[in-house]
From TrEMBL:
One of its GO terms (molecular function) is ATP binding. It comes from Shewanella fidelis. Keywords: ATP-binding, Nucleotide-binding, Transport. CDD domains: ABC_DR_subfamily_A (cd03230). Pfam families: ABC_tran. This is ABC transporter ATP-binding protein. Residues 6-232 form the ABC transporter domain.
Length: 302
């Protein structure tokens, strides 16, 4: 059986008397991206630090490619790439010196460093001290550092903060390349619309607990949010079609996501309607439905 790249089983974490994580389990396989979502203080960064082996869970187990995460941190035998939430490097160094330093630690060739500097659009500033870099330039450098050694596991804590739209798109392109090469990716982010089309699964955390885990389709099915279909002369067609009438609301067909395949089949085979517009709940809609309207406070223990 395939060993998951990341496997957390029943992990709890206490900081003194505060329970930051409460019986959390999930797996990420090679070549998969999991988005780690949740309110401020939900426990996302703590989970990433546990995978890195920087924090040992109070109870439960954390494994990376079958090894205890903490033991791997000490041996560094598994190649992990990490972008911390607040990326900061010694600001008297130049961008090139930073990548050169991490490259030397990880045995990366100078050619790879040169290529990444150019790809991330930092060539013109590579010899300047970091104190002259903008926030987005530092973030680009941080992402380049994280993927430098083409890791087997890539952990990105809010990677698109400060990135312009093109740089964000470029980053997701790079992530997809790494996935193709078998990298397992965990991305903690609040930018749901950006991550939606790139994830395989999403883990939604609330107050240290797992609120939901699944593919977008699974989360959509589990939600009570409706999908909808619209097409020209829909109202006319519905008048003479008892099957469609049961879904007709506010000028469109509205239904649970699990009914989509059946309705589409009906439209194509029974009504000869081939051109329609389907709208499904977005990840952001599902997230808001799960989290509710009021602000979650990490201090409220569930
Ligand atoms: N070293 C620490 N000591 C005490 N409490 C901590 C420590 N680190 C984190 N916490 C608490 O644990 C909870 C989870 O923090 P964490 O940083 O994992 O949240 P997060 O989901 O990454 O939040 P955000 O989206 O705001 O970055 C928070 O209530 C935080 O205050």
């Amino acid at each position: 059986m395939l060993t998951p790249s990341v496997k957390l089983t029943d992990v709890s974490l206490r900081y003194n008397d505060f329970t930051a994580l409460n019986h959390v389990s999930f797996e990420v396989n090679a070549g998969q991206t999991m988005a780690l979502l949740g309110h401020n203080g939900a426990g996302k960064s703590s989970l990433i630090k546990i995978i890195l082996g920087l924090i040992i869970p109070t109870s439960g187990t954390a494994k990376v490619i079958g090894q205890c995460a903490h033991a791997n941190q000490q041996k560094s035998s598994i190649n992990l790439g990490y972008l911390p939430e607040d990326v900061s490097f010694y600001d008297k160094l130049s961008g090139r010196e930073v990548l050169g330093y991490f490259g030397a630690l990880k045995g990366v060739s100078l050619a790879r460093i040169d290529a990444l500097i150019e790809e991330f659009g930092l060539g013109y500033a590579q010899h300047r001290q970091l104190k002259t870099y903008s926030k987005g330039m530092k973030q680009r450098l941080g992402v380049a550092q994280a993927i430098l050694s083409q890791p087997k596991i890539l952990l990105l804590d809010e990677p698109t903060v400060g990135l312009d739209p093109q740089a964000s798109q470029f980053l997701y392109g790079k992530i997809n390349e790494l996935k193709q090469a078998g990298c397992a990716v965990v991305i903690s982010t609040h930018e749901l619309s950006l991550v939606e089309s790139h994830l395989d699964t999403a883990l939604i955390m609330a107050r240290g607990k797992r609120r939901a885990l699944g593919t977008c389709a699974e989360l959509r099915k589990a939600s009570s949010l409706k999908s909808s279909i619209h097409f020209d002369d829909l109202a006319q067609r519905v008048k003479s079609n008892a099957y469609l009438q049961q879904f007709y609301q506010q000028g469109m067909l509205q239904f649970d996501s699990s009914a989509k395949a059946e309705i589409v089949k009906h439209l194509v085979t029974q009504c000869q309607v081939f051109d329609f517009d389907i709208k499904e709940p977005r990840l952001e809609d599902i997230y808001h439905e799960l989290m509710g309207q009021s602000l979650c406070s990490p201090a409220e223990q569930a």
